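HUMAN: Now follow token order:
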Amino acid sequence: MGTIYLVRHGQASFGSHDYDRLSELGHRQCRALGEHFRSMRLSFDLVLTGTLRRHHETYDGIAEGLGARPEPERLAGLDEYDPEAIVQAIHSDEIVPPATPEAVRAHFRLLRDGLIEWMQGRSMPAGMPRYADFAAGVSAALARARERANGGQVLIVSSGGPISAAIGLVLGLEAEAIADVNLRIRNSSVTEFVSTPRRLSLLSFNHLPHLHKPELSDWVTYA
């Protein structure tokens, strides 16, 4: 039996011209997670990441805190969907960065609706694969992880979309549930799967063991 640790990237730069980079808080979140892994005496037999900058920066922070840096394998199947394309597929108005709390809530309501339409095959966002193909990329990454997880530990660094897709595959969730899971995954959170030769099972979801201190409550973020 082995364990696969799926980590969502640290806080990125939501609302800026370049989302695909960690904020200063995002870097701190990831270093703290690596320090937690070190305190648990974890070592990883395999590390898989997506190809995005925020994935690389997240792993760099984890490795710094852990004090070890196994060379990662980078898989496009762990990359995030394009949220703007998802929204634009169902919403014709110009998309502008949300500047108020209400605008942020409205943005994520639209994103949820767009995700469900895409997952159910009722929309085809520009420049993106069908959801079935997106999920197949996630499934291939899980298969690669399972090759090394039986009896070992595997770290996957990715984004909310692939992590929620992985949970959907393991639990057999419908589109609405996968979208809801997606939008609740916190930055630098850990989701654990247990892998045996016969099956992959969910052990924990969206956990922040490295931030369970009152003085770190403002380090908990979602975007």
